[in-house]
Amino acid sequence: MPHSSSHPDPNQKLVDQYTEIARLAGGLAHEIKNPLSTIRLNMDLLAEEFADTDSARDRRVLKKVEIVQRECQRLQDVLDGFLNFAKLRRLKIEPTDLSEQVRQVLEFFRPKAAEAGIEIVDYLSSNLPTVLLDRESFHGALLNLVLNAQQAMPNGGQLVVRTYGTADGVALDLIDTGHGMDEQTRIHVFDAFFSTKPGGSGLGLPTAKKIIEAHGGEIRLQSEIGRGTQFTIRLPVPARLPAEKGT
User: Fold this and answer.
1) Which domains does the chain show, CATH number per domain?
2) What is the 3-state secondary structure (H, E, C) of the chain?
3) Which tens digits make up the pLDDT trace of 158-171?
């Protein structure tokens, strides 16, 4: 009888190593958050101590305390963003109308858009086939993309949003009239911790990509300096919805 090989699958070994690294990194982030909370609390107490004073020395101390407070908040944002990016998601999949999901994000964003001088133009199809989405996580992914468009248009502009059917599913375009991206940025924009914005965590777009791909979808990018950016999300349409199983 031929001897059966019991060599481990190298791909599975890589997956296991990645999973362990992600687990350790997530644990490290949680460990950092505990002393960070103590530092933030004491900085807040110090700020209160020096808030009502006419002393030039105390005002100098307060300015230094405020710098530490800002950096603590920045570190808190990075940790929260990383934990959101690294966590293993169990998707709560539900039959969903993509256009309605997009509409909810746009309604949430409209006040901020108006304040920023951004005109929203939507072409949302009313007869798309149903897709399967985890509505909460997908809402977060879309919001990341919309906020990215806002940051690309600091002096206002236009955001065009459209949904439509494709040969094998549905698609969503988000097109802004912002400053656009150069080639180097386009190549790395979905890399974790890559950011061209001062103080940016560089985790918003990578997290959005991860969520979209977890739904079996894909996200593509077109951009040109001075002419704006277009993100396109493509999602598959299931052959049969879960409610139809067994019928």
Assistant:
1) 11-86 (1.10.287), 93-239 (3.30.565.10)
2) CCCCCCCCCHHHHHHHHHHHHHHHHHHHHHHHHHHHHHHHHHHHHHHHHHHCCCCHHHHHHHHHHHHHHHHHHHHHHHHHHHHHHHCCCCCCEEEECHHHHHHHHHHHHHHHHHHHCEEEEEECCCCCCCEEEEHHHHHHHHHHHHHHHHHCCCCCEEEEEEEEECCCEEEEEEEECCCCCCHHHHHHCCCCCCCCCCCCCCCHHHHHHHHHHHCCCEEEEEEECCCEEEEEEEEECCCCCHHHCCC
3) 999 999 999 889 99
